[in-house]
Amino acid sequence: MDASVIETLAALQVIDRRIKDKETELAELEKETGGQRSLLEAKEAEAATAREELAQVASRRRDLEAKLQDEEARMKERRMLLGRLRNDKEAGALQREIEIAKETNSRVEEELLTLIEQSEALEGNLKTLDEEREAIAGNVARLGEASGGRTQALRSEIEAGRAERDSHAERLGAPLRRRYEQVFQRRNGIAVIAVTDGHCRGCNVTLPPQMWNKIRRGNEFDSCPSCQRILVWQPVAEAPAAAGES
Ligand SMILES: [Zn+2]
Q1: CATH class for the region spanning 3-169
Q2: Given strand 192-196, what is the order of strands in its sheet?
Q3: How far is residue 95 from each of residues 81, 109, 197, 209, measured CA to CA in Å?
Q4: How far is CA 43 from CA 29, 55, 178, 226, in A?
Q5: Which pLDDT does position 57 carry in this prediction?
Q6: How far apart are the first and last CA of the chain?
Q7: Å from CA of 205 to ligand 1 middle
Q8: CA 194 / ligand 1 centre spacing (Å)
Q9: How far is ligand 1, taken at its centre, from the CA of residue 245, in Å?
């Protein structure tokens, strides 16, 4: 197998690793912005619910206040009427009516107090929610400003990188290309690895001497029996992190 194939594999791996890093950075940027956006949506929904609840409480309060006002007017009339009544039976009946109305009114007043407390609690809650929402909206805007340019740049760099890697990949035979791509995916971006002192530098496994002799002669591409990476004799661009990985 000629040296140019090894060069192509090595170049392809350099480009693919660069693309992979950019894709990771892009995904992280998008995840961060997306996370803040969903948080903002959740806060907005929560605030909308609280506002709805507050409107219901306010409407109930208005109804009860109107009812109480009517009752007060009627109570005034009853008292005036009571002063004019000369018939004891009628006066007694009216007195009972007044007592019942008083009890009803005091229950309405109690409910009104509860509603006022609820309104205050809901208003406080809404204020907090609005402050939180504003803070998150600020984050979203800042993130958008900070990462917008970078996101755009990463997208076009990834696109350019893909075109470049394809032009290299085309030079490889289909089976080798497939093998390279599969191992690149499975082995965290290192598909081609050098043999050093009879060991695979990808996973450190000791290779049988006849295998590395064959690789040294460069006749064909062998895969590491342990990590399946494509073994080459000369060093290729790789990540130091790969050492020791199995
Ligand atoms: Zn290996």
Answers
A1: mainly alpha
A2: 199-200, 192-196, 230-232, 222-223
A3: 10, 21, 111, 115
A4: 21, 18, 47, 51
A5: 97
A6: 27
A7: 6
A8: 9
A9: 8
Cα of 226 vs centre of ligand 1, distance in Å, is 5
Residue in this structure with the two tokens 């007592």, named with its chain if needed:
99
Place of tokens 């020791």: 244
Q: Please give the angle made by the CA atoms of 165, 171 and 173, to the nearest 5 degrees.
A: 115
| Mean pLDDT value across the chain | 90
Which residues of the chain fall below pLDDT 50?
239-246
Phi, psi at 224, each rounded to 5°: -65, 130
Going from the Cα of 234 to the center of ligand 1, the distance in angstroms, rounded, reads: 15
Instruction: Using a pLDDT cut of 70, give the percent of the chain over it.
Output: 93
What are the residues facing 174 on neighbouring strands?
Answer: none
Total-model pTM:
0.67
Intervals of CATH 1.10.287.1490 along the chain: 3-169
